[in-house]
Amino acid sequence: MSVAQLPVTRRRGGEARLPLPPGPQSRRPGEFLSLLAHDHIGLFRRLAEGGDVSTVRLGPRRLVLLSHPDDIQRLLVTEQKNFVKGYALDRVKMFLGEGLLTSEGASHLRQRRLMQPAFHRERIAAYGEVMAEYAQRTAARWTDGATFDVHEAMMELTRDVAGKTLFDLDVGNDPGGVSEAVSLSLQMYRWAVLPFGSLLEYIPIPFTRRVQRARARLDAWLAETIKQRREEGVDRGDLLSMLIRARDESDGQGMTDQQLRDEVVTLFVAGHETTAVALSWTWYLLSQHPEVEAALHAELDGVLGGSPPRVSDVPRLQYTRMVLTEAMRLYPPAWILERRALGDFEAQGYRIPAGSLVFASQYLVHRDPRWWEEPERFDPDRWRPERAGNRPKFAFFPFGAGTRVCIGEQFAWMEGTLILATIAQKWRLVHDPSHVVELEPLVTLRPKYGMRMTAVRR
Fold this sequence. Notes:
The chain is of the alpha+beta class. It contains 16 helices and 14 strands.
């Protein structure tokens, strides 16, 4: 049926109105609410069965999934002013505060303007030297034949990189309990997205009290760190120093301590959680595809000639970047985006009413056979220029888009490429066949049971 043939409803007085989107029929009572609680990806897979625009109601809320790249581009870019962040990120504010990820409107634009200089090319190149150094330290600690959780190792490595680039501190002993606070807050998110889930924080159960203690410890450490840096008044080359010194051109004002706290927590979470997730899935995919692993090793040996990777090598590590890109296609760390419609929105001839929660899933779009030949196949060569040119732009959007595109995108590409190259130059990682691999779609797409692998020296 063409758009012109779609049935219309009419307001009182005869004004034509577009129909609401279709949606999948529930197979059993409470199916969609159960999926929301236990299988987030399963919920949106079911929604996608309704077509490029599909809807379902959960209690008072209408959920709409957009699956066509053209509509996703309108959602994130051309008509982005009609949307704000959804309720899920409101819940994340419990931990992140009003940082760049969760703030809206003029506040978001001001904060982004203040933070942008910290991500200029020259600064990222300086951070790259830290990334390479810390990756070399990690590779040097491993022993041939050792079996361990590679996801945990990547979380520790990217945490340490984030600590050095953010604070110019060695956070190897995790003085602020960052890792615990992040992990517990992500676990809380699982329940917070449910109806009335926002009340969880106020229920005095042991888990909630543990989360609150972890946050209080982190906040105390950050407050002391910010206080010391303000008193020093010195630019140490880290992000915190830059943010303390940043001034808005319009009024000459800088960030308050609370704004600094919210931004550095947001950057810390985004700067180590997402990259660690991407690398964990990359190691797993390489272990399952020896021909890709061999091609990666051939590039590293040819480009580096046995020398450790440096920032200047990154432009020549093209296949390494393609491997990382393909892993992020199959397992995007940020696997879904949510917005709330401020006004009615039209997509594919359907009306999405104001107040609807509108989603676009990287995980599903990145595996859509309309845009990807053999979509389930791990094939880094699909990113060669001669094969990549005909896809819709928004068939791949791991970092979002528009004014809310991830500010640290280039930081993440640099870090992921350097860590992958540094470790793969020295080690092969072989997946433990007894280890169960399962998705855990929280804010990020973690491997639910970690990633148990054995290090084999090359």
